[in-house]
Write a structure and sequence with these properties.
The protein is of the alpha/beta class. Helix content is about 45%, strand content about 15%. The protein has 23 helices and 16 strands. A five-stranded parallel beta sheet has the order 2-1-3-4-5, sandwiched between helices. Strands 7-10-13-6-14 form a five-stranded parallel beta sheet. Strands 8-9 form a two-stranded antiparallel sheet. Helix 4 (about 80-90) links the parallel strand 4 and strand 5. Helix 14 crosses helix 16 (about 355-370), helix 15 crosses helix 18 (about 385-395) and helix 18 (about 385-395) packs parallel to helix 22. The protein is elongated. It starts with a strand and ends with a helix.
Length: about 475
């Protein structure tokens, strides 16, 4: 049974959260401040510390330095995303905004417990320095758990000559991974030839890959080597291999098996020494079962498999990558240093980025070019903050950023048997006669659209009389 410590100066919320965790199989201890936790418990004995950001005396982020062996999950209901982001930069494993739902906090705790961060060490290089060196050697930016696994696999696969299949969504950095494999292999210094199989017409793909002899077909006026032959001694990267026509797949299979090619129109075969790296965003195994991809070729290319995580699953890497791209594009066009506003930071960390790193890079580049001041807002990034928040309330995988004002919400003490979702509902029902919808949204730290969405989902009727109606009239 995992030992958890809950630290919050609000006794009702602290006890409620402790009971919720205990019902789900965790051993839970409680404290109201950092000082009380230090005096009552051996902090290194806990598997996870869940602490409010703002506490009497020392802030909750002090646990990060005091207890390097245990991960720290920061809670905050103070309507400042900047504070939460800063806590992540200081080393918090995650943060969550109050009022939160039961499923949300349980999912966060389970994710951290099942995949704990690596222990910090005091000998040798610091973890941050080692991570930065790893990022630079691989060509990536980010040090989350998923990226650490990626770096480890890259380091093991690169020195070999085995074929690698890189899987990942569009824009997640598959070509960057292929370049890292080549750069760290014995073929470094030799050519790496990249081919987008989806960008070459089906009638030309074979001649592009294998070359042709003079007179092989109409328009073949000279001999021409193919891209495979051009990569001799180096690496061939076939991006979107799932789009390769069946005829070309058969010829590629022979090249992989025998290490030789034959130009179109030639009767001679040529030996080539080429390492093959393939990439796709499609399910090749499913395509093979359906007959859209040769099964024997699938088994040949699926020797080593490298999975790239989508950007939305990379946690605090998202903001780090955005700031890196901001500095890069600002320097590229010779402008003064730019920075993201709190709203832009919220948009960046809330948006799901379906186009992954490529979409983010385009958004940041566009924002830098169009910006007229040193601050870049979410509007310049092209992200609708309200829509991003609504998508979170409907179960988006990105961590929820809904937060509430400390002044009003903290003064409301819910009964012992009140759930966290009921807490939100009760607050709205008790204050909607004296507050407008705008004021309610501000006190809860959400947009009016988010408040409306939650009303609909929880079935909270909106009063037609009183201040709310007068404000909206």
């Amino acid at each position: 049974m995992q030992n958890l410590l809950v630290v919050d100066d609000e006794a009702a919320i602290r006890s409620k959260l402790a009971r919720l965790l205990q019902r789900n199989g965790y051993a839970v201890s409680e404290a109201s401040s950092v000082q009380e936790a230090e005096s009552r418990y051996r902090l290194s004995s806990f598997d996870l510390i869940i602490s409010n950001l703002r506490l009497p005396g020392a802030p909750g982020t002090d646990f990060i330095q005091k207890v390097q062996q245990a991960p720290v999950l920061i809670m905050t209901k103070y309507a400042s995303l900047r504070s939460a982001v800063d806590s992540m930069r200081m080393g918090a494993v995650d943060y969550i905004a109050k009022p939160f739902e039961q499923e949300e906090i349980l999912a966060s705790v389970q994710r951290i417990i099942s995949n704990p961060p690596k222990k910090k060490t005091t000998s040798g290089k610091s973890k941050k320095a080692s991570a930065r060196e790893s990022e630079q050697s691989q060509g990536f930016i980010g040090s989350c758990a998923e990226m650490q696994v990626l770096y480890k696999h890259l380091g093991k696969m690169a020195p070999t000559d085995s074929t690698v299949l890189i899987l990942g969504e569009t824009g997640s950095g598959k070509e960057l991974a292929a370049q890292a494999l080549h750069r760290q292999s014995r073929r470094q210094g030799k050519p790496i030839i990249s081919v987008n199989c989806a960008a070459i017409p089906e009638t030309l793909i074979e001649s592009e890959l294998f070359g042709y002899e003079k007179g092989a077909f109409t328009g073949a006026n000279t001999n021409r080597i193919g891209l495979i032959e051009a990569a001799d001694g180096g690496t061939l990267f076939l991006d979107e291999i799932g789009e390769l026509p069946m005829e070309a797949q058969a010829r590629l299979l022979r090249f992989i098996q025998e290490g030789e090619i034959r130009r179109i129109g030639s009767v001679e075969t040529r030996k080539v020494d080429v390492r093959l790296i393939c990439a796709t965003h499609r399910n090749l195994q499913k395509l093979a079962v359906e007959g859209a991809f040769r099964q024997d070729l699938y088994y040949r290319v699926n020797v080593l498999r490298l999975q790239l995580p989508p950007l939305r699953e990379r946690g605090k890497d998202i903001l780090e990558l955005a700031e890196y791209l901001l500095a890069q594009h600002t320097a590229k066009i010779g402008q003064k240093k730019r920075r993201f506003t709190p709203k832009a930071i919220q948009a960046i960390t809330t948006y799901s980025w379906p186009g992954n790193v490529r979409e983010m890079e385009n958004a940041v580049e566009r924002a830098v070019i169009l910006s007229e001041s040193e601050e870049i807002d979410n509007d310049l990034l092209g992200i609708d903050l309200e829509l991003a928040e609504v998508s979170q309330l409907h179960g988006d995988e990105v961590t929820s950023k809904m937060s509430s004002s400390a002044a009003s919400v903290s003064s409301y003490d819910p009964p012992e048997d009140l759930s966290l979702e009921d807490y939100f509902q009760r607050f709205v029902l008790e204050h909607q006669d004296s507050m407008s919808e705008t004021e309610l949204a501000q006190k809860l730290g959400v947009s009016r659209k988010c408040l409306w969405e939650r009303r609909q989902r929880l079935g909270i009727p909106r009063k037609r009389g009183g201040k709310s109606a007068r404000k909206s009239a």
